[in-house]
Design goal:
Elements: H1 2-23, H2 27-47, H3 51-75, H4 80-85, H5 91-113, H6 131-139, H7 144-165, H8 177-181, H9 185-188
Length: about 200
């Protein structure tokens, strides 16, 4: 009973924070709502006895990815009014996608309630040790290619974030490394002969 109550509490806060991500006027507030959503998702993972996934969700996404998001948001000049103008235009499509997802979730829950096996559950693995050991064994054997593809996608996202923040600014002095390397001694140094004088 307590587990069910905690699940509904965490799920309600998770849905509310996800709505806050979309509807927040300030992009920093939206990022903080996303942090709250990650924490609630980690709590749900812990309730499902997937401790490794819950801890990794907090450490990687909250500790690293969201810090990167906040840096990008604060460094970019985001026009909030321009972003808000396109929200209503995509609202019907977003509502349709949300309705399809909610319908699929209710379908799966209803089928499980009726006792119908949808063949979505994998057979239990006979890997000794914790679920972390089992997850690593599956991740680096059967799902090695998708894991590498996900790593490439994250690398592309990092390069895109750097490219967005690297814009030309006027009035700033910047180093030209090629010009510094190509400099010659004759261009920077001039030897002047000075006649020596005798002091009485």
């Amino acid at each position: 009973m307590l587990t069910t109550i905690l699940f509904y509490v965490f799920a309600t806060v998770l849905v509310g924070s996800a709505i806050g991500v979309v509807l927040a006027r300030n992009p920093v507030h939206a990022a903080l709502f996303l942090v709250l959503a990650f924490f609630e998702s980690a709590a749900l993972w812990l309730m499902l006895e997937a401790e490794f996934l819950g801890i990794v969700l907090v450490l990687v996404y909250v500790g690293a990815v969201m810090v990167l998001f906040l840096f990008v948001i604060m460094m970019l000049d985001i026009n909030i009014s321009q972003m808000r103008s396109g929200l209503t235009r995509y609202a019907p499509l977003g509502g349709l996608v949300a309705a399809v997802m909610v319908g699929e979730i209710f379908y799966v829950v209803w089928m499980r309630h009726l006792g119908i096996n949808l063949a979505l559950e994998a057979p239990p693995m006979s890997v000794p040790g914790s679920n972390t050991h089992a997850l690593g064994a599956v991740l680096y054997t059967d799902y090695m290619l998708p894991f590498q593809l996900a790593a490439v996608v994250l690398l592309i996202a990092i390069v895109a974030a750097i490219a967005l923040t690297m814009r030309r600014r006027t009035g700033h002095k910047m180093q030209d490394v090629s010009a510094q390397v190509a400099v010659r001694r004759e261009d920077r140094l001039r030897i002047v002969k000075v006649d020596s004088e005798k002091y009485q």
